[in-house]
Amino acid sequence: MAISSNCWKYIVLTFNVLFAMSAVVLFGVSGFLLYRLFLYRHFIGVNVEYPSILLLMMAIITCSIAWIGWRTTKSMHQIHVIITGLLIIIVVVIEFSCFVWAMVVWDNTEIDIKTTMTSYFAQTAAAKDPNSADAIRWDRIHVRFECCGVNGPNDYTSSGRVPLSCCGQGPLDELHKPYTSDCSALYQRGCGKPVHDYTRQQLLLVAMTALTASILQSTGIFCTFFLAHAIREKRKMSLRHSTTLREGTYAAADDSLLASPSAPAPTLPKY
């Protein structure tokens, strides 16, 4: 049983190393996906970013739990190992919840993005400043997704001027000509659908990352509790061995008392 417990000890130590490495990878992937969503936060809303934010936080927490698991595994204290296993369970459950959350947002994101983009477009159009930060963001999204407005170039009918970015050029290309009324390469599609498709793609990557992390890290739950069981069995065997030695010592002492009585042997009286 001692060999078995040592075997599980090294298995769990190896898992904690891999657990920490997975946390580093999870931190990088979730941070990258959060950055890609953050770039278009004005068009897609902030609620879409929450699953990736939670996943990023779990990556940081996972690193801490990996360090705790390493220390508790080396100490071989059963109660501490069990607590570490419970912490891993909490991490796995939250990561799986993040997967579910991302899929729910993925399924309902079309209406939210449409509403957010329409509101932001109206706000930008009301400012009537082609050099404002909001207008430049629209120029960038026009060039990035090869689109125009929310539903198409007709969205600019009220202003009477279509931005030059709807032809594939930004305001930095021609500073003195920010608008164009005649463009043979004018983008006809709106930005609503391509931005929606882009957001769904990022959310799907967030969901798959969370699901993969929860499945891989769940193996540590079994390893940790098997180690706790091995520690308990080793302790039971040690107690049984100690009890056997103690009983053997008492039995040897009783036999020596029977063989060497304390009273002197009787002798014949002298007359």
Automatic annotation (TrEMBL):
SUPFAM superfamilies, alphabetized: Tetraspanin (SSF48652)
Pfam families on file: Tetraspanin
Family: Belongs to the tetraspanin (TM4SF) family.
Primary location group: membrane
Nucleus among keywords: no
Gene3D superfamilies with a match to the protein in the record: Tetraspanin
Annotated membrane topology: Multi-pass membrane protein
Transmembrane feature ranges: 12-38, 50-70, 82-104, 203-231
Organism in which the protein naturally occurs: Galleria mellonella
Protein's UniProt name: Tetraspanin
Subcellular location(s) per record: Membrane
